Amino acid sequence: MDAYLLDFVIQQRNEAVTPWVVALTTATRPAFVMVAALVASAMLVLRHRAMPLFPAVAMGLAWVSSSALKYVCGRERPGRELQLLYEYNPSFPSGHATAAFAAAMVFTLLCRRWWVLTAWIVAAAVGLSRLYVGVHWPSDVLAGALLGSMVVAATFAVMRKVAAKRAR
User: Could you name the domain of life of the organism this protein comes from (predicted)?
Assistant: First the structure.
């Protein structure tokens, strides 16, 4: 199923679209998304919001979880002949998808509706971009999406409980 879905996406490649997809997948490297989470945390501190470190902690945990799983699982990426960009580390789960969906979940928990919808659309586009450039199997992207979302949701639940206990 993975190979079939990946082949389908790769067959949809288009010369006019490819530079945009490559730009999206490059701009959303997990390290860049983590920097954005740190900026969001700093903004929350300045606004005196509850749980100001939540974005940075949640995104950091998602990143660490994804990185650790890559080396535990050790899954190889699709063949080099399919890749528009060369990626060398293990494939499962997708770090880009983990970071993008973790960020979307942070937006869901902290922001207004417009930003939430935009964040999920961008996360889906990032996941699809990883297939388009041929560096992940669909199950890598799905696992990254689930991992990122779940780690953020769990982090939020724990940090909210801790904040509530401190407020008493």
Answer: Bacteria
Q: Are 130 and 84 in contact (CB under 8 A)?
A: no
* Interval 136-143 mean pLDDT: 97
Does some domain include residue 88? yes
What range does the domain containing 122 cover?
Answer: 2-9+29-163
Distance, in Å, from the CA atom of 5 to the CA atom of 11, rounded to the nearest integer, reads 10
The CA-based angle 27-67-146, given to 5 degrees, is 80
Buried b (16+ CB within 10 A) or exposed e, 41-59: beebeeeeeebbebbbbbb
Q: What are phi and psi of 157, to 5 degrees?
A: -60, -45
Composition of the chain by helix, strand, coil, percent to 5: 75, 0, 25
pLDDT digits (tens, 9 = 90+) for 53-95: 888 889 899 999 999 999 999 999 999 989 888 888 999 999 9
What's the structural domain count of the chain?
1
> Within the chain, what is the greatest distance between any pair of CA atoms?
59
Q: Is residue 168 part of a domain?
A: no
